[in-house]
Amino acid sequence: MIGNFRNIAIIAHIDHGKTTLIDKLLQQSGMLDDRNNVRERVMDSNDLEKERGITIFAKNASIKWHNYIINIIDTPGHSDFGGEVERAMSMVDSVLLLVDATDGPMPQTRFVTQKAFSYGLKPIVVINKIDRYGMRPNWVVDQIFDLFVNLGATDEQLNFPIIYTSALNGIAGLEYENMADDMTPLFESIIKNTKTPSISGSFQMQISQLEYNNYVGITGIGRIKRGSAKPNQNVTIVDREGKVRNGKIGQILSYIGLQRIESKLAEAGDIIAITGLDKLNISDTICDPLYVEALPPLMVDQPTISMLFSVNTSPFCGKEGRYITSRQILERLKKELIHNVALRVEETEDPDTFSVLGRGELHLSVLIESMRREGFEIAVSRQRAIFRTFNGIKQEPFKSVILDIEEQHQGQVMQAMNIRQGELSDMLSDKKGRIRLNYIIPSRGLIGFHTNFMTITSGSGLLYSTFSHYDDVRPGKISQRQNGVLISNGQGKALAYALYNLQNRSRLLIDHGSEVYEGQIIGIHTRSNDLTVNCLTGKKLTNMRASGTDEAITLIPAIKMSLEQALEFINDDELVEVTPKSIRLRKRYLTENERKCANRS
């Protein structure tokens, strides 16, 4: 049975079709209950994944095809969730590298391929979306080969198999001009080109993923490197520091399709979930007590940005959330560290403030949104790039950016990137009105840029970025907001009469009847300075009959910012107040006197 296991991960740039491809593999192998009536992207089971249409967490499924068991791992395509990709690499013997038949390799394609090569894996290249208008598979294959050469691939890795697919239509083929009626060519390629696991030696596995529920406690997920495991088996656990302790396996759960079933025996090569072992951590090695041998700890790239998470100190604190204290916030962040391997949490001099370090804005905003839905109230600062000192020289992170835009927007976009100290490295035109610009830019130069980019391109532009390298710090301030803000000078209900008189000099962020407090940001000023205003004043009433000359009060609809937009918008002296029901912008210091003192100091 060992030789019939195949462990494989699907890696790709965001939106290149990984989860859709797994849908078709599950359907055509009969692993789903109803093959004709199934929702799309069944692997994206988390609420945030369903809403955003992206994969955030790496997840396992098991496919039975003929006499083979294919354990397949769906990984995120966004660079902010690279930690999930790195964990998945430790459980597989090969990867399906999915590339769009039109776009070709993108920034995240390079990142995930580099990780696969670092683990010595040989990719199976899948050219997806072969049904797409404008597809150019031959050009894409050439680009992939060039990418592999640049990443230092071995001769064996350069001799990669190629499969053409249309995941949407559920078809695959060895030639894009001669496609089969189903995914059989892809299944056959996985069986043929994926190594079988080694079986020699006593039991050994490494924890690559953790789950927790109140009924069974911690569940550890990983691949059995060698040997076999049974329920109630005595084992030894070795953590990443080398500390050893003993334990006993409770249940062993194997994967069948998307379901987990209890198993009496698991053998080398299988990906399983085990219960009964307390205080498990990612990278822990579980092995036979008679043959204690630790596997190398999983290495994850370091964070590149940080944010400050603080206790909500606004006058509305506690009105909408259940968890508001620093102790509750710290406990939640420590709980996140158990399974979110790319995250770091540091305590600061202020006991009510914690520094949270992550791989990108989306990485941290998903954490904030999860906490918000759980009932937390927090105040979040502007993101900052994480600097480092190398050989006595201060360095900052740089990102590789691809901007896919219409040619008419090229001038404005290039001007905006130059202001943010971006360096143009390549420029390609598709001869059909669109152009692709490749930039290297300091990470802090991208902070707050996305909204401006979408405005410049009228929503038609595409922006992709991934971490590139550390280099010497560029002099000067960049990525500062051009507009000031309107700040409320009191607490109460905002009234239409006052807002009407303010909208001539700003774009409002609140509606009539909104509850506001002193120090809350209520609008975006048309000029560069901040303005403290009164939005609570109503129209004076008299006992005189109206003459009909009063103006009709008509308010322009307020701007409603998403969490990501709010995090992009704020400056260093501002915070985003996040509660289960509201997202508010505020000044760090609420009263005008406090702000003046802070500016003087």
From TrEMBL:
EC number: 3.6.5.-
Example of a GO biological process term: ribosomal large subunit assembly
Catalysed transformations (reactions): GTP + H2O = GDP + phosphate + H(+)
Gene3D superfamilies per UniProt: 3.30.70.240, bipa protein, Elongation Factor G (Translational Gtpase), domain 3, P-loop containing nucleotide triphosphate hydrolases, Translation factors
Tr-type G domain boundaries: 3-198
InterPro entries on file: BipA, BipA_C, BipA_GTP-bd_dom, BipA_II, BipA_III, BipA_V, EFG_III/V, EFG_V-like
Locations listed in the record: Cytoplasm
Keywords: Cytoplasm, GTP-binding, Hydrolase, Nucleotide-binding, Ribosome biogenesis, RNA-binding, rRNA-binding, tRNA-binding
The organism's place on the tree of life at top rank: Bacteria
One CC-aspect GO term: cytosol
Subunit structure: Monomer.
Family stated for the protein in its record: Belongs to the TRAFAC class translation factor GTPase superfamily. Classic translation factor GTPase family. BipA subfamily.
Reported function: A 50S ribosomal subunit assembly protein with GTPase activity, required for 50S subunit assembly at low temperatures, may also play a role in translation. Binds GTP and analogs. Binds the 70S ribosome between the 30S and 50S subunits, in a similar position as ribosome-bound EF-G; it contacts a number of ribosomal proteins, both rRNAs and the A-site tRNA.
Annotated protein name in UniProt: Large ribosomal subunit assembly factor BipA
Organism: Candidatus Gullanella endobia
Organism lineage string: Bacteria, Pseudomonadati, Pseudomonadota, Gammaproteobacteria, Enterobacterales
Gene for this chain: typA
